[in-house]
Write the structure tokens for this entry.
Amino acid sequence: MAEIAGDEAPTPPPPISGEVSTDPYTSIPASTGSNNPPLRTTKPGVKRLILTASVLLSFLVGLPFLLKSTEIHRSPLPSDAITGLAHRLHSAPPSFPCGLHAVFLRSVPDRSDASLTRRLEQSISAQLQLLPATSTAGNVSVSVTVESAGGCSSSSSSNVDSGWQCGTVTSADLVIGDEVFDELLHSALGSGRGDGSRVYTVVVVEVDDAEGMRVVVGKHRHAWVVGKADEVKAVSVIGKVFAKYFMNGGIEEGEAGIGKGEFMPVGSDGNVVLSFSLLNADPSDWVYDWDFEKIGERMLNPVVEALRPIAEINIESQVLYHTPKSSYSYSDDKLGGNVLSMGDIPFFVNSNEWHLDTSTSATGRSKVLQFVVYIPSARECPLYLQLPDGRLSKTNAFISPMWGGVLIWNPPDCSLDSKKTHGTRKKMSSQELMETIEIFIGQLRQLFGLKPSYLSQDMDMPTKFVVSEKGFTEWELDLLYRHHACSNLLSCLTTLESLSSLVRSLPRMIVMDEIGRQVELSLEAANLAQGNATLGISDSSAVHATRARALAEDAFFHPSIMSISYASIEHYFAIYMPFFAPVSLHVLLAAIKELKRYKAERAKYSAFLASQATSS
Amino acid sequence: MAFGRRSPGSSRHPPALTIVTALLFAFLSSAAAAASSSTDAMHNNNWAVLVCTSRFWFNYRHMANTLSLYRTVKRLGIPDERIILMLADDMACNPRNSYPAQVFNNENHQLNLYGDNVEVDYRGYEVTVENFLRVLTGRHESAVPRSKRLLSDEGSHILLYMTGHGGDEFLKFQDSEELQSHDLADAVKQMKEKHRFKELLIMVDTCQAATLFSQLQSPGVLAIGSSMKGENSYSHHLDSDIGVSVVDRFTYYTLAFFEKLNMYSNASLNSLFTSYNPSMLMSTAYYRMDLYERPLNEVPVTNFFGSVMKTLHTDSAYTGFLAAHDYETPLSVGDNLDDHFMLKDRATPRRSNIEKEAQLTPHGWTEVLLEQLEGKNTDTVVMYGLGAMGILLALSTWLSM
């Protein structure tokens, strides 16, 4: 009421006497006493209206800024790229094309003609069709070369080029020994090229004075068969060697091995920590130390380098004391010692006393594989592992998939009187340590899904496998790279899909820029991996696939994606309403009231003008 | 705090597009699911996540519950590195505890739960809903150590035990926040998507416990609660010495079942679940097995409460590795090794001597000074230095005057 009165002509001062019955503010309109709206002589001012209107306007103008500044920042995820990748991977699962090149070294001066090579090629291809296909290997293209004293001819129907130069190797070179022949073949085959699909070579060397056939699988990408055989036999041997070893790593159908998820012990960020521990069960009997730093790391360096495309490996070692086992062994005098059966083995690792997981370099998402050497105490020494068929184990070692391996090492002075060796400090000799590391390499191969060695294989003909100083032969590494690349690609894809669906299902979740960037980098690496897979380059494909998976996991496990801290709509209102609602209510009301008053005043003024017009 | 109902994403997009994307997504996810379910991993290891969500002295029994279960699980073989223990841990050293540093779960005080070798991963104010969900989903900051992470994989069986004060569809965390049943269901769903477990057993000992897992949808989850909706769970007995109740009924009877077992036994889960007597518990222990494929009488309790380790014998070493190594680096094996290193050791001091001489010849006078200072005590050297400084100061003052 005060505002209405204030705009008019100044009110007469209120009566000083006690005439308070009449309200001074209502006295003015009442003084006219007529039904007409009161008149005013001056144009109503617009200052107040402009003032209130401008405040309201500023609120309205600021509203979009408020909404923009408080909106949830969601970095856009390239979901169509993800669905595109999914589509490509599901319709054409990653497979690596490779080549098989068969070389026949004949002693008879036979004229080798193109029809012979073509026939051989067709029979080898037919043989390969019969054998079961592997999941990761794609098309196999076959080519044949027949070399004899009369000349050298190769089938040129496919583009398989292993770089075989005719005349460099003859059957007379076999006398130099298997390892050296292996290197000779390697140099004859052009030492392999890193680009393009992998070509595996099987050389059939015909010698007349041999009975039966002998197969030797080298440590690069070739094998050779020595003996006298007809074509059919040779073709079947070539097919079997290729399919069983080069494609499947010696693992039969249904056997536990490579290709199953539990034989890929690589952390989701691509790191593996190999932790080697020497456990002294009872230091009061004897205390052993080892030279792992010098010897072990040096021996394991080639292995670490060989596995680099699929895992970044760190090596640590420690010596622990007071680490008894938690299963029971019984003494067997017939076998000459204490015996543990295979049924006790799952309870062997005494996790309460064996504090193995003390790695400082292992980050949250890397995998730690424990390799343990257990030195029994004097009471239980010597300790042997008994297999289910009653024989004693030659290695005294076992693994647990995805955990690591344990080896029981009986100290050399076990059978002596233990009182003489009370509490002495000894060192494991270098020879013993190196033999132990040999067993560890076998266990590492087992953990990655391959056989520890091929000694106990039963083939229908004697087969020898050349051992590589890298712990894995090149064809075994190809196998590992292919499997890891495929599985990492698929796991990267499922992670990206879950992330995309999660982000989509929570429309008010903040998606940080870092997540968007990681997703993009992951997609890029995945595309590169898939491209390399179609070309057959397994090692760079494995590198890119590992990187893609690591980035996808980083994005999915980003700590900012926490469901409890989402700003729901009610939350948003609850924050901003106490600030703006009362103020905006008042501003709005003020503007409306101002407008109404202005209209009323204008009506009065126009009435006055009208009355002026009528009176004048 | 109230968590608002999540609005379905479809309400923000035009319907036709939604249908198409939903169909495409359903197709792709089913294809992906088919691909992933075909690779069924073997049971490799067991994990336990034990959570006590209460603090303050009058909730003594909740901490005793959790510690009893911790002790049982350790006794049956799960190591500390695979147990995540979340406790407020304010009982043992509480000023009201007349048995300092001891926590009991029975009035006969026969067993001290807080004895030796208790490793608490999240203690005190670290037990929050956010940390709990971070443990389950694996979304930690990068600096969180491995001992505080749930490092399970697709072959793990996880036991999740929660105790405290709860209600209809919620569980109270430390008197200040709540875990809602749909948050738990959401976390379990994300765990399943990332293959963080093969099977999960949830045991809840609170009031109206069965409501906490009512929203679960993920396969491979088995859940048991100490009471149904509308029922309370009660404590077992009061210890007049300590002054508060020391154990809850559900946990008491669970422990009674496990005291008879050791790590070799193969009692089934069915025998555990049917051992709960509603009249003794004064509530109905309700379990849901609709998401679990295997029949309960075929599952040994050690699948969740004990340790398992699948082992394979190593038939042979990678024989020939040493020889191959010799072949490559002939000089570095056996006795030659020691010679080699001795040669290197002798070489290095000689080389460093040469380097040292090269460094010092321009500064021959420092060598003289070092020789002088060799035999003396550092204190006396300092005294000499201060004395010299004082003399110099006096001299310069006198000269300037």
